[in-house]
């Protein structure tokens, strides 16, 4: 079986969990995903099956779109709701114009610092493993591009935004950095990936619904 399978990942699953489940369910040995989604995140996860695995990097390199929920007034050790939350010292609530002005700092090509708890490798070891051991992880900023930022809803302390961005963008880092810019603290509380390149949530199927008829077949060369 050669083709692409667009999965609507549910909360709690790792990207590897999804790959393993589909490999077993469809009886396909070669299955790869095209961009990790954290366990707390939901939405589009494009899987490459069989000979289609050669297309994986091409899909990884495409633009991604997300709907992110950010909570202000606190910080997190993991920059999301999974970490230890520390409330900021009596932050001043920000209005929508404050948010709009701050967001402008993150549009276009910028340097972004990955989260301490990330899959980035430092000296051959995953950053999140070192962070779990209590070690300070020396990460380097990465160049990313944020193509679009749109406020969908805002009522202090919760902001919901749509983000279109390049590969390698951490929405957890965006939440953290936006909170720092506003001097109130912030962390990611929900994330849904709605698009990977040309593949959208409308095309995605849940893991339990996935079958051979869900696979976007590739024509043989």
Can you give a write-up of this model?
By secondary structure, the protein is an alpha+beta fold. It folds into two domains: 3-62 and 197-217, Pseudouridine synthase (2-Layer Sandwich), CATH 3.30.2350; 64-196, Pseudouridine synthase. It is 19% helix and 36% strand. It contains five helices and 14 strands. It has helices at residues 15-26, 56-60, 96-103, 127-132, 171-181; strands spanning 3-9, 31-33, 42-49, 64-72, 74-76, 85-87, 108-112, 121-122, 125-126, 142-155, 158-165, 186-196, 199-200, 216-217. Strands 1, 2, 3, 4, 7, 10, 11, 12, 13 and 14 form a ten-stranded mixed sheet that branches. A two-stranded antiparallel ribbon has the order 5-6. A hairpin with a 2-residue loop joins strand 10 (142-155) and strand 11. It is elongated. The model has no long low-confidence stretch (mean pLDDT 91).
Which short descriptors sum up this protein?
Pseudouridine synthase, two-stranded antiparallel ribbon, alpha+beta, 14 strands, 5 helices, 36% strand, 221 residues, 19% helix, 2 domains, ten-stranded mixed sheet, elongated
């Amino acid at each position: 079986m050669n083709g692409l399978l667009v999965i609507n990942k549910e909360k709690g699953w790792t990207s590897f969990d999804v790959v393993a489940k589909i490999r077993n369910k469809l009886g396909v040995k070669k299955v790869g995903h095209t961009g990790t989604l954290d366990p707390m995140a939901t939405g589009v996860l494009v899987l490459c099956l069989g000979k289609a695995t050669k297309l994986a990097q091409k899909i990884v390199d495409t633009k991604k779109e997300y709907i992110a929920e950010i909570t202000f007034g606190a910080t997190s050790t993991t920059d999301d709701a999974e970490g230890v939350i520390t409330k900021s010292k009596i932050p001043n609530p920000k209005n929508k114009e404050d948010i709009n002005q701050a967001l402008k700092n993150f549009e276009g090509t910028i340097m972004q610092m990955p989260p301490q708890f990330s899959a980035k490798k430092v000296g051959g070891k995953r950053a999140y493993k070192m962070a779990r051991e209590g070690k300070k992880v020396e990460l380097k900023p990465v160049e990313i591009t944020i193509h679009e930022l749109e406020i969908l809803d805002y009522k202090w302390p919760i902001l919901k935004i749509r983000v279109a961005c390049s590969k390698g963008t951490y929405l957890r880092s965006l939440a953290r950095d936006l909170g720092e810019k506003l001097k109130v603290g912030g962390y990611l509380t929900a994330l849904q990936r709605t698009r990977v390149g040309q593949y959208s949530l409308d095309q995605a199927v849940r893991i339990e619904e996935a079958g051979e008829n869900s696979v976007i077949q590739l024509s043989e060369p």
